[in-house]
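Notes continue from the previous slide.

Worked example: a multi-chain complex. Inputs as given:
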Amino acid sequence: MPISLEEVRHVAKLARLDLEEVEMLAFQGELNALLGHFSDIECIDVGSVEPNAHVVQAYNVWDEDVASEGLDRQRALRSGSLTRAGFFLVPTIIED
Amino acid sequence: MVFGLTAAALAQKLRSRELGAVEVAEAFLRRIESMDPLLGAFLTVAAEQTMDWAAASQKMIDQGEGGPLCGVPVAVKDNISTDGVRTTCASKMLENYVPPYDATVVTRLRRSGMVMLGKTNMDEFAMGSTTENSAFHPTRNPWGLDLVPGGSSGGSAAAVAGGLAPLALGSDTGGSIRMPAALCGIVGFKPSYGRCSRYGLVAFGSSLDQIGPFAHTVEDVALVCEAITGHDPKDSTSLDLPPISASGLKQGSLKGLRAAVPEELTGDQLNPGVRSVLESAMGVLASEGACLTPVRLPSLKYAVTTYYIIAPAEASSNLARFDGIRYGSRIAEAGDGHVEMVAKTRARLFGHEVKARIMIGTYALSAGYYDAFYNRAQQVRTLMKRELLSTLQEHDVVLTPTSPVTAFKLGAVNDPMALKLLDLCTIPANMAGLPAISLNCGFADGLPVGLQIMGAPLEDERLLQVAYAVEQALPDAQRRAPFSL
């Protein structure tokens, strides 16, 4: 089923991408082209095969509970676009 | 002339004091200064830090320390974190980002004494097959300056093929080391998933990404692997195994080698020139005693489709961290709240292909579509892995071309689907976590053709042995681009 412009807007919102209208249209086209190919795998008989999110069989890889040096705060802040008094500054997240 | 030497030969001259690490580094930096404007392989030349690395390496040599490649220069793909050296992932989002730490592979390069020259160009966030998606400039192929070098590690491949660095590191998610290696006529290797630490690699597809080396010879590639691979507690997907060893490299033989050749990747999907060179090379291997058997691997038909669901899905999650707050620039207008600021920053600073893949991935994972797309793709992935593993029980290796085409003109392939189909031979190794290598096996219309060899998971040493034997049987394999001489 082709993807509507409304759905493209919704996906862009989920992905936190403030796209221009012309970009929305372009992505609608690209997504629809890909969807055509995605339908190829709908017909494969996968039976009860387990989905494989990973290729290595590694589970619960734990670290020893030993304290060690973390990243120095000054260094961590160095790349921030807006910082003050040891914090990264952001616009208000929680409003009334 | 140092630029024509293999890393192993250069290392020997350094150890014997015929050459010094500082003069070698200076020579390569000078060559980069004069020749890189033609190639565009580098985004950042480390210069000052390079000389520090070189001085430290010389000290190691003087004290009889350091690894087998001590003092040999290396270029590093710009999605691998380097402390104090700009790391952009070829994106405007990270145009001025300087990491506060080294990736594990970079720490290991330092420890072994290799000398970092700088950071190489790539497709933005490793998304692409031609390096044309770099936000800064394309990279050109040393075999033809109007041709693409492949991607996404095109800068690293061009640097080595063009004689600007004897070694380079790249990353491979769907073929991003092997494909540019093939188009640039050099050796490129992707280790088994989990053998090379991803700590410090800017993540694209976490279940697919691996870092690996580029060089002119299999021996050089094996020596780099010895230095950079092996368990890393900082990467929880890093397997508890020792580094890949180069010690048994020259002991392999083609006699009795059982090679599976999948019909799905060696027929009409290939450019006729590539097909003909491949058949010729396979003929040589057969005459040396290898046993080549056609096999059918039906799931490979779906490799590209499943990859273009799984990789973007993982990328959409991995790239969520780029919000302009902790790293990178931010774009905000007066009155913008948090969400507006993040959405504007991402829309303006990510390139088109990156946004496209985030959109695809977000869609595939969204409510209502997760089962139809992502889950199903993971099931097909399981089938693909099973088919490949079962083939590798009956055969020692799987042989395919690396790329269905040779290097093409910059700007020639615009259709997004056509570009994706170029990865059809390389994607399966990432999907199944197999080690895979590309080496040159001949020329079609004067352009390099890559042969891909895939092995069973964790049989990296065995694969490198086979690759070495293949390399010895194909003398054309080591021919260098005229640009590099």
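Summary box: Residues 21-38 of chain A form the longest helix (18 residues). Helices of chain A lie at 5-14, 21-38, 73-77.
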